[in-house]
Design brief:
The chain contains five helices and twelve strands. The chain is of the alpha/beta class and 208 residues long. The strands form three sheets. It has a seven-stranded mixed beta sheet. The chain has a three-stranded mixed beta sheet with strand order 5-6-9. The model has no long low-confidence stretch (mean pLDDT 93). Bound molecules: glutamine. Catalyzes the hydrolysis of glutamine to glutamate and ammonia as part of the biosynthesis of pyridoxal 5'-phosphate. The resulting ammonia molecule is channeled to the active site of PdxS.
């Protein structure tokens, strides 16, 4: 697109500032999204990392949840990181009490999937669909995708041995998807907004 795209950043909770910084550095205009009216005229929306149960509750209170879900279902490109991935997901295996989601990406996620004691780690991931070079990924109490619906592309995965309780039964398990895309909706378990590896933001903006 010839003018800078207008990208909304869900701003009721989470690492909003980090996404705004990356998006503006890459040439987008940004707008914090806190209520339904903030969605007007956007070319895309980013859902940050943070705490998905709080995001879900606040989005409900602010009357943003249904309009945001409708906008994404209607074609508004969306990118969610970590808690943002959980917000986009159709299902949450282990929701907090009363927690729901926008239900716009046909995956089921497991919150806090990567370990109980040391639950943050970094990894260099091969993501050929997004970058020729490995993408440096930071996982912070991150979700994993445990069900991938039809039409959802797995862009990157990590060995299941990373998962919480992976050693418990000794059974070999499949890799856990940590980056997925279904048409105009992309989600990562990790936080490119904090690493300086902006491949996913670049790819998202390219599609607007
Ligand atoms: N870094 C994050 O966004 C953590 C996500 C958080 N564990 C949640 O359930 O929402």
């Amino acid at each position: 697109m010839s003018t800078a795209p207008a990208v909304g950043v869900f701003a009721l909770q989470g690492d909003v500032r980090e996404h705004v910084h990356v998006l503006e550095a890459l040439g987008a205009r940004t707008r914090p999204v806190r209520r339904a009216a903030d969605l007007a005229g956007l070319d895309g929306i980013v859902l940050p990392g943070g705490e998905s149960s709080v995001m879900d509750r606040l989005a409900g209170i602010m009357g943003l949840k249904a309009p945001l879900a409708d906008a994404v279902r209607g074609g508004l490109p969306a990118y969610g990181t970590c808690a943002g991935m959980i917000m986009l997901a159709a299902g949450i295996e282990n929701p907090a009490p009363g927690q729901g989601s926008l239900g716009v990406l046909d995956v089921t996620v497991r919150r806090n999937a990567f370990g109980t004691q040391v639950d943050s780690f970094e990894a260099d991931l091969a993501v050929p669909a997004v970058s020729a070079d490995p993408v440096h990924a930071v996982f912070i109490r991150a979700p994993a995708v445990v069900r991938v619906g039809a039409g959802v592309e797995v862009l990157a995965a990590v060995p299941a041995s990373r998962a919480a309780g992976a050693d418990d039964d000794g059974a070999p398990a499949a890799d856990l998807p940590v980056a997925v895309r279904a048409g105009h909706v992309t989600a990562t378990s990790f936080h490119p907004e904090v690493t300086g590896d902006w491949s996913f933001h670049r790819e998202f903006l390219r599609g607007l």
